[in-house]
């Protein structure tokens, strides 16, 4: 299920990024931090009072700019508004209402999207006179905040939850594996989709998607059915101007949220890039299955060790994703395309695998005997019990005496033992600590 999108918009220097950082980086936000994962600051996951959403930071809007990008700025604003479930319109209380604010307000009124008008940089919350002019925007009562100091941001987040659409009820649908094709522009995503459709002699029908510009296609091969999602390409932020391409990233993230298994396309000629790492990191954080498809393999000069060296480079560059299978292919020549859906079936089985509790605890006892749990200042971590709590991704609960004694390296050791014993190839694993009294 795709998370709701909350977009922050406004003219330059009104404090949009400060508010963004306050929400996702302060104590009000729960943001997963995993070693080896970098992420573009355009978006971030946040949570407030048990409800999660994706917060999007946009560039400053200046409708009075007469430069070459002037027409694209309006397009940027309209796309941000169109793709968002809620807009936070930030204005500067100290500077007062400006002509640019009024132009942005006009676009927002026409959009009929939910809007919270936020007056930032308020120093004296008792002085309401600073806010009177903003009523002229016709967007309701402005909420005074100080993003720098964090004042009233809790009230703002309460309003955000009130305005977001209610959580969607899971729909009754066929048990289809949803495949998301992701990667940078021009790595061959659409070519891969076309090659799969042509190679497999499949029955194809369009399925309306919940994500704009991500096209869903029903694929049937034999007695198995899939939903194939072809997403817009993602590009480094430094190469995204104020055009429609910037917000194709948002639509791609939503598509990843909806999918089960991601086909991560990598250009064999350009090799692994920083943006590839960011896309793969997002898939990993979301707990999705993943297959690394090195496309355009037909264009690479090879010897008998080329593929091994390439895999080593991928493992080094994606240190957090050692579990992902690698397929060298060519969407153009259809080299190894027949293996894509076979790998999807395999990864889907792996991410839905359930392991018996007795087997898990036998493995745990053996792992602790081979490598004792860590200690800190004379206190040793005790792991009493392990059980599987869920699938997609496989999630395990470890009942321990003191969760803070668990070192990341030991957690990784336990994950590796689980993978050695059961596989879980192509899927992340979640290990969750729960404190339990030793007398229990």
In this structure, how is the largest beta sheet organized? 7 strands, mixed
Proper CATH architecture of the largest domain: 3-Layer(aba) Sandwich
**DSSP summary: helix tally:** 11
CATH topology of the largest domain: Rossmann fold
Mean residue pLDDT: 82
Oligomer: single chain
State the distance separating the first and last CA atoms: 37 Å
Strand order of the largest sheet: 8-9-10-7-11-12-13
Which CATH C-level class of the largest domain is it? Alpha Beta
Low-confidence stretches: 26-41, 201-214, 232-247
The number of strands is: 18
The assigned structural class equals alpha/beta
Give Rg in angstroms: 24 Å
- What is the CATH superfamily of the largest domain? P-loop containing nucleotide triphosphate hydrolases
Brief synopsis:
Helices cover 32% and strands 22% of the residues. The chain is globular. It has helices at residues 16-25, 70-83, 99-111, 153-163, 189-199, 245-258, 274-285, 306-317, 338-351, 357-370, 408-422; strands spanning 5-9, 43-48, 51-57, 86-92, 115-120, 143-144, 177-182, 203-207, 215-221, 224-230, 261-267, 289-295, 326-328, 375-376, 379-380, 383-390, 395-400, 430-435.
């Amino acid at each position: 299920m795709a998370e709701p999108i909350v977009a922050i918009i406004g003219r330059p220097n009104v404090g949009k990024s400060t508010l963004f950082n306050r929400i996702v980086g302060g104590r009000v936000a729960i943001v997963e931090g995993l070693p080896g994962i970098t992420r573009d600051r355009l978006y971030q996951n946040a949570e407030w009072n048990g409800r999660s959403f994706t917060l999007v930071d946009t560039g400053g809007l200046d409708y009075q700019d007469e430069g070459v990008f002037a027409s694209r700025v309006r397009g940027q604003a309209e796309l941000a508004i169109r793709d968002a479930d809620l807009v936070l319109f930030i204005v500067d209380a100290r500077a007062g209402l400006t002509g640019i604010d009024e132009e942005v307000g006009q676009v927002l009124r026409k959009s009929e999207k939910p809007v919270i008008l936020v007056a930032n940089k308020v120093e004296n919350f008792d002085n309401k006179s600073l806010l009177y002019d903003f009523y002229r925007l016709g967007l309701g009562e402005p909420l005074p905040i100080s993003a720098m100091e964090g004042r009233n941001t809790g009230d703002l987040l309460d309003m955000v939850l009130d305005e977001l659409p209610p959580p969607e009820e899971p729909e009754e649908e066929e048990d289809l594996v949803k495949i998301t094709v992701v990667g940078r522009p021009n790595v061959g995503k659409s070519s891969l989709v076309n090659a799969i459709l042509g190679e497999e002699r499949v029955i194809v029908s369009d399925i309306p998607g919940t994500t704009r510009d991500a096209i869903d296609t029903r694929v049937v091969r034999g007695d198995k059915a899939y939903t194939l999602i072809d997403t817009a390409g993602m590009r480094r932020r430094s190469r995204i101007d104020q055009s429609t391409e910037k917000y194709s990233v948002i639509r791609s993230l939503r598509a990843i949220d909806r999918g089960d298994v991601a086909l991560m396309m990598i250009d064999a000629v350009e090799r692994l890039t920083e943006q590839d790492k960011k896309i793969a990191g997002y898939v990993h954080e979301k707990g999705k299955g993943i297959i690394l498809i090195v496309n355009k393999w037909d264009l690479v000069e090879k010897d008998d060790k080329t593929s091994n060296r390439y895999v080593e480079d991928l493992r080094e560059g994606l240190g957090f994703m050692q579990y992902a299978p690698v397929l060298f292919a060519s969407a153009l020549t259809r080299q190894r395309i027949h293996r894509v859906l076979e790998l999807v079936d395999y990864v889907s089985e792996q991410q839905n695998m359930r392991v018996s509790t007795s087997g898990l605890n036998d493995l745990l006892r053996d792992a602790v005997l081979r490598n004792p749990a860590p200690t800190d200042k004379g206190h040793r971590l005790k792991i009493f019990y392990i059980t599987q709590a869920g699938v997609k991704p496989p999630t395990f609960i470890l009942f321990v005496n003191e969760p803070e004694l668990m070192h990341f390296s030991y957690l990784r050791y336990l994950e590796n033992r689980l993978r050695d014993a059961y596989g879980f190839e192509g899927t992340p694993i979640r290990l969750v600590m729960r404190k339990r009294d030793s007398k229990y």
